[in-house]
């Protein structure tokens, strides 16, 4: 009876572990991988019974296999996305940032965040991290060429780590003034892009932005933006598929405590030709 109890405990534990150097199931013993369990080993041997609806693999432990790592600038934020195909003993990812000032070379990496890993998995896992401190980088560094590099430091539960490849993102240059640009293309059919800017001297404060499209009689036909925005360059797509050909007006109104008058407003024309 005692021997059977020990075997049962062993089976329960092994179904919770993904990777072993080898799995040996002796005669008269059973190893069951329940549904949702991942078990991977360099080899499986023995005269016992191996069964279950879980996932089995062989040929060595699964590494933390990174299949995607991208960085995209969005106003004053940089959004990082990455994906793993497999994970083994993955505690998580430290996100490191470096400013590339000379020939895009970085030697001063700093930790800006941490994202917890999934531990053990042989199915794709998606991760994201938003670096919202890029404004401070733009503000404090002179001669900055607008390139920031990122890398991931993948950490195992046992303290081992490995670095990912480096990705870089080019930030917009410092914005000097409020601006509403002419839409492009113009004339257009059926969509066009409208760009606007909020100057960097607004710092981390938020400005209330409202961007609205009117017909020639002054009737509102679309609200493209109505939210708070930090300093930076922005663009928004206007789809006029449901509108008739003709001349329209688009007007931006920005309210900020940094403005002496309290608000900035500008109106421009655009032409829809179907």
Task: Describe it.
It is built from two helices and 21 strands. The termini are far apart. The protein folds into three domains: about 1-60, no CATH class; about 65-170, Immunoglobulin-like (Sandwich); about 180-270, Immunoglobulin-like (Sandwich). About 5% of the residues lie in helices and about 55% in strands. Strand 8 (about 65-75) and strand 9 form a beta hairpin. It is mainly beta and about 270 residues long. The strands form six sheets. Strands 8, 9, 10, 11, 12, 13 and 14 form a seven-stranded antiparallel beta sheet that branches. The chain has helices at about 1-15, 135-140; strands at about 20, 25, 30, 40, 45, 50, 55-60, 65-75, 75-100, 110-120, 125-130, 145-155, 160-165, 165-170, 180, 190-200, 205-215, 220-230, 230-240, 245-255, 265-270.
Low-confidence stretches: 1-21
CATH class of the largest domain: Mainly Beta
- Amount of beta strand: over 45%
Q: Can you give the helix content as a percent range?
A: under 10%
**CATH architecture descriptor text of the largest domain:** Sandwich
CATH topology group of the largest domain: Immunoglobulin-like
What number is the mean pLDDT? 77
Rg is 28 Å
Structural class: mainly beta
Total helical segments: 2
Secondary-structure element order, N to C: HEEEEEEEEEEEHEEEEEEEEEE
């Amino acid at each position: 009876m005692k021997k059977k109890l020990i075997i049962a405990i062993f089976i329960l534990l092994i179904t919770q572990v993904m990777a072993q150097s080898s799995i040996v199931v002796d005669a008269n013993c059973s190893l069951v991988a329940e549904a949702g369990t991942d078990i991977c080993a360099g080899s499986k041997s023995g005269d016992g019974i191996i069964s279950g609806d879980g996932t089995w693999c062989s040929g060595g432990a699964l590494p933390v296999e990174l299949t995607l790592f991208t960085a995209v600038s969005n106003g004053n934020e940089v959004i990082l996305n990455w994906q793993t195909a497999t994970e083994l003993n993955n505690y998580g990812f430290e996100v490191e940032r470096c400013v590339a000032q000379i020939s895009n070379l970085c030697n001063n990496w700093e930790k800006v965040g941490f994202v917890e890993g999934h531990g053990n998995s042989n199915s794709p896992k998606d991760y994201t991290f938003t670096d919202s401190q890029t404004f401070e980088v733009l503000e404090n560094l002179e001669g900055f060429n607008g390139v920031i590099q990122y890398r991931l430091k993948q950490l195992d539960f046992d303290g081992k780590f490995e670095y990912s490849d480096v990705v870089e993102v080019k930030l917009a240059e410092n914005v000097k003034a409020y601006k509403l640009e002419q839409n492009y293309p113009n004339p257009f059919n059926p969509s066009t892009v409208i760009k606007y800017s909020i100057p960097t001297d607004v710092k981390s404060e938020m400005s209330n932005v409202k961007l609205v499209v009117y017909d020639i009689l002054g009737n509102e036909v679309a609200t493209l933006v109505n939210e708070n925005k930090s300093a930076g360059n922005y663009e928004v797509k206007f789809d006029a598929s449901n509108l008739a050909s003709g001349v329209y007006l688009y007007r931006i109104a920005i309210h900020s405590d940094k403005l002496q008058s309290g608000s900035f407003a500008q109106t421009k024309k655009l032409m829809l030709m179907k």
